[in-house]
Amino acid sequence: MSTSDTTPAAPPSGTTPAALPSDAHPRFAEALRELGLQVEVRRFPDATRTAVEAATAIGCELSQIVKSLIFEADGVPVLVLMDGSSRVDVELVRSELGAVKVGRARADLVRETTGYAIGGVPPFGHRTKTRVLADRGLLAHAEVWAAAGHPHAVFRLDPATLVELAGGTLVDVREQTS
């Protein structure tokens, strides 16, 4: 290109001019923009697919990780937000929803419902609107970490705001340990 040529060079393949790289999944990044929410999304070289992996990578307590779990209640998807150190009591979910049958959703239903793969499902910014149950135990922390739409990316937020943005109903659906 000569110095008098004012036509900008084409961007490298796979990039767009003036675009900043985002560590969040594009759908989730768009949801953040639509909400006007500015959060730091952190990407890790190793997967943060499980709560244990995420807590280890971040350096936080396991209970500060938010698991976004899709269940099927009488054939209808429902999102349950649970802290990383606890398990969901399916019977409590069934009772809360007034459902006959509740079980973990298959991977294809999770992707179809949310637009994300298991291990990267964020608490909001999904492909479809689903009912959201948020375990009250999430509120025990000043901040929590959740997936940002990718198994290597997470973001931090106060739990009350996270539950509100997810459209969640606070419930007690944590499995009680004896």
List the helices and strands and how they pair.
Layout: H1 26-35, E1 41-43, H2 51-58, E2 65-73, E3 76-83, H3 90-97, E4 102-104, H4 107-114, E5 131-135, E6 144-147, E7 153-157, H5 159-166, E8 168-171
Parallel strand pairs: 2-6, 3-5, 5-8
Antiparallel strand pairs: 1-7, 2-3, 2-4, 6-7
Shape: globular
Decide which structural class fits the backbone: alpha/beta
Q: How many H/I helices?
A: 5
Query: Mean pLDDT across all residues, rounded?
Result: 87
Approximately what portion of the residues adopt beta-strand conformation?
15-25%
Structural summary, described in words:
- The chain has helices spanning 26-35, 51-58, 90-97, 107-114, 159-166; strands spanning 41-43, 65-73, 76-83, 102-104, 131-135, 144-147, 153-157, 168-171.
- With 178 residues, the chain is of the alpha/beta class.
- Strands 1, 2, 3, 4, 5, 6, 7 and 8 form an eight-stranded mixed sheet that branches.
- A hairpin with a 2-residue loop joins strand 2 (65-73) and strand 3 (76-83).
- The longest helix has 10 residues, at 26-35.
